[in-house]
Inverse folding.
């Protein structure tokens, strides 16, 4: 998978045949991922393949690949992966000139981004509350131990 990503980056800077090499490595990674029954990883690989197809200007194939990726990501409830693919579908449809479809995917991306942010903030708030409660607990224990020690010294 990582080798494919490296070749993909080389393709983006114009190195000849890099996309072909990237697709070859992604194909190998996809077979491994399928044998391990890892749909989330498969979705990520298809997403990368879709980006290559989009970079090559093959928008129809890119959209089909992204749609396959999003279906896999949805099947395993991987919202971060789904969100990334929605954004790529937005970009691809925009480049294709299919602005209604692009807008639809952008709206899905924006809504899911907002939900993911809200979930993250909620989780962070819970962590802060737990830490605060633990700090209060430690303070009370420490203070009580100090009061006990002071009381024992007075007697």
């Amino acid at each position: 998978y990582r080798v494919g990503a490296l070749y993909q980056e080389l393709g983006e800077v114009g190195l000849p045949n890099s996309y072909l090499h990237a697709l070859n490595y992604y194909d190998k990674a996809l077979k491994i991922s399928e044998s391990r029954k890892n749909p989330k990883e498969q979705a990520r690989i298809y997403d990368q393949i879709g980006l290559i197809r989009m970079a090559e200007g093959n928008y129809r194939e890119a959209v089909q690949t992204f749609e396959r990726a999003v279906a896999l990501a949805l099947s395993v409830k991987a919202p971060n992966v789904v969100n990334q693919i929605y954004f790529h579908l937005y970009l691809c449809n925009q480049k294709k000139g299919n602005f209604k479809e692009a807008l639809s995917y952008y709206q899905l991306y924006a809504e899911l981004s907002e939900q993911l942010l809200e979930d993250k903030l909620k989780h962070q708030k819970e962590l802060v509350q737990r830490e605060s409660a633990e700090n209060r607990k430690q303070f009370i224990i420490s203070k009580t131990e100090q009061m006990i020690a002071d009381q024992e010294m007075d007697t």
Q: What stands out?
A: The radius of gyration is 25 Å. The mean pLDDT is 88. DSSP finds six helices and no strands in the chain. Residues 103 and 113 are 15 Å apart (CA to CA).
